[in-house]
């Protein structure tokens, strides 16, 4: 649905009251249940009112039961203006923003991913809303930790802590642009992150490869570590095949040359 094609039309008393009360509560994104509670109406009446507000260009339906107010200052042909994390979080339930999206938020990469990555514990298909792609990464419950709440445009959003965002990337490098991007992030973040917390989080993940990758990268970047490699050999980059030099100290197959891992230093 393209908001550029929507022209706003008149609005009724109850609709105006609903939008006013939501605005007073700083609720740019809200659910069907929240609207019904404010309207004190039955489900059919609430559904009809919301349907009309969407059709008349006052609301945008993000997903089933989730709506976004299109701001008044957007004019007769309102544009999508809400923060991408707010949109993604409204669809993710208990999920949290992580991987490449979190690295960008913290300034650990200059790359601007075209996809918002959200960690969740139940499988959910990738969605696209107003050109915004949202990828839901299903992880095991034991890996679901290390996040906090931030406020973006008066909307509470869950996002990985700095340390956990990087650990998540070492767990699934494809969700941050590859292991080289993770190396660059750790280098850029080393004055802001707690290396001991990262080590603790790496162990807590229950993935031998995360520990081996973190130890290897810490040594590569000259960061002191007390980590011991896991028993099972791991690929440095899961997407790069199985050929490469075997690093006995970190029990890891260097299937990406060090020169490539550090190529960003040349720019």
Written description of the protein model:
It is a single chain. With 267 residues, the protein is an alpha+beta fold. The chain is built from 10 helices and 12 strands. A 4-stranded mixed sheet has the order 4-5-7-6. Strands 1-3-2 form a 3-stranded antiparallel sheet. The longest helix is centred in the N-terminal third of the chain and has 13 residues, at 43-55. The radius of gyration is 22 Å and the shape is elongated. It starts with 12 loop residues before the first helix and ends in a 6-residue tail after the last helix.
Describe how the helices and strands are arranged.
Elements: H1 13-24, E1 29-31, H2 32-39, H3 43-55, E2 59-63, E3 66-69, H4 84-92, E4 96-97, H5 99-106, E5 115-120, E6 127-129, E7 132-138, E8 147-152, E9 155-160, H6 162-171, H7 179-189, H8 195-204, H9 208-220, E10 234-235, E11 245-247, E12 252-254, H10 258-261
Parallel strand pairs: 5-7, 10-12
Antiparallel strand pairs: 1-3, 2-3, 4-5, 6-7, 8-9, 11-12
Helix pairs in contact: 2-3, 5-6, 6-7, 6-8
């Amino acid at each position: 649905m393209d908001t550029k094609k929507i022209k706003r039309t008149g609005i009724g008393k109850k609709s105006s009251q609903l939008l006013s009360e939501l605005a007073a509560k700083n609720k740019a994104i809200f659910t069907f249940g929240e609207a019904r509670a404010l309207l004190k109406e039955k489900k059919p009446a609430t559904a009809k009112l919301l349907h009309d507000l969407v059709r008349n260009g006052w609301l945008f339906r993000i997903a089933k039961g989730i709506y976004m107010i299109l701001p008044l200052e957007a004019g007769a042909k309102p544009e999508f203006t809400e923060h991408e994390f707010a949109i993604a979080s409204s669809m993710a339930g208990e999920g949290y923003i992580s991987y490449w999206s979190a690295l960008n938020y913290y300034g650990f990469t200059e790359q601007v991913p075209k996809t918002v990555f959200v960690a969740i514990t139940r499988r959910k298909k990738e969605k696209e809303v107003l050109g915004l792609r949202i990828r839901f990464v299903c992880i095991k419950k034991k890996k679901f930790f290390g996040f906090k709440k931030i406020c973006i445009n008066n909307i509470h959003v869950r996002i990985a802590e700095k340390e956990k965002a990087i650990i998540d990337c070492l767990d699934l490098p494809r969700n941050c642009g590859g292991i080289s991007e993770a190396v660059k992030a750790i280098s850029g973040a080393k004055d802001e992150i707690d290396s001991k917390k990262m080590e603790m989080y790496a162990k807590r993940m229950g993935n031998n490869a995360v520990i081996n990758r973190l130890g290897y990268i810490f040594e590569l970047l000259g960061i002191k570590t007390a980590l011991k490699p896991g028993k099972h050999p791991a690929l440095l980059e899961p997407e790069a095949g199985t050929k490469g030099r075997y690093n006995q100290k970190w029990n890891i197959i260097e299937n990406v040359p060090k020169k490539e891992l550090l190529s960003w230093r040349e720019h």
